[in-house]
Amino acid sequence: MGRLSGKTAFISGGARGLGAEMARRMHQEGAKVMVTDVLVEEGQALAAEHENIAFFTHDVTNEAHWEAAIAKTQEVFGGLDILVNNAGITHDGTPVEDTSLEQWRKVTSIDLDAVFLGCKHGVRAMKENGGSIINVSSIYGIVGSAGQAAYHAAKGGVRLLTKGMAVEMGTLGYKIRVNSIHPGFVLTQLVRDGIKDAVEAGMMPGENEAVEGLTEATPLGRLGVPLDIANGVVFLASDESEWMTGSELVIDGGYTAQ
Ligand SMILES: NC(=O)c1ccc[n+]([C@@H]2O[C@H](COP(=O)([O-])OP(=O)(O)OC[C@H]3O[C@@H](n4cnc5c(N)ncnc54)[C@H](O)[C@@H]3O)[C@@H](O)[C@H]2O)c1
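YS: structure for the whole thing
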């Protein structure tokens, strides 16, 4: 028996990076997994490699897509027990004084508004039988950095959206747990793009120096790998965390401990 046997999970933005590793780990633990993303080729390839991982094309900023994606999950796998709001982008490094409202909204619509949409439709799908919602925030939802104000605002919003929902679920008598997870630096495409933008904006010295600096600033002496984060998601998804809701699981090699 796997730790997630009998459960169905939904992961937004799961075609690559952390989300793809979450899908593989949850699948290893016995879950059926619906992966959604705007990256169709990558998502379909991941699904094709695994029985019981399916893919659905889904832009998380579109409410009708959420309804269709969750309905498809219920149709294919017969229910929904775990929702991971994982899709995300970074800001392009522009300082606040030069950022347009359009740039701001691009980040907050994917990194915060879409998490609200996922929670809304996830709760509707899970309120009868209960479940676990895991919102992927960041250490940047806890501490700040230069050139990423929109990202910080969105990820900080996710942190407290999570706590508000955790209390609300209890008040409404729904057996739905809602927790946030706060990864530190893992060299996915998102982080590589973020570092490149920061270097171009003059916020970081150079790409290699940035990676060295982040590694040196991590007490455990290395950057993260996707498995570090996926293992935390499996725990929050499983019944091992059944007395946890409204909590924030930081997995960052100690970066924010100092
Ligand atoms: N990598 C890190 O160090 C790190 C640290 C903290 C938090 N995070 C968070 O982890 C999550 C996953 O990031 P990652 O590092 O794997 O990056 P990634 O770029 O590899 O993956 C993000 C995924 O989100 C998808 N996505 C973007 N916009 C979308 C949209 N509108 N609709 C549907 N899907 C969309 C992308 O196509 C991509 O597959 C993000 O929320 C990110 O903010 C990552």
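YS: worth flagging: The longest strand covers residues 176-183.
IM: good catch. Also The chain has a mean pLDDT of 97.
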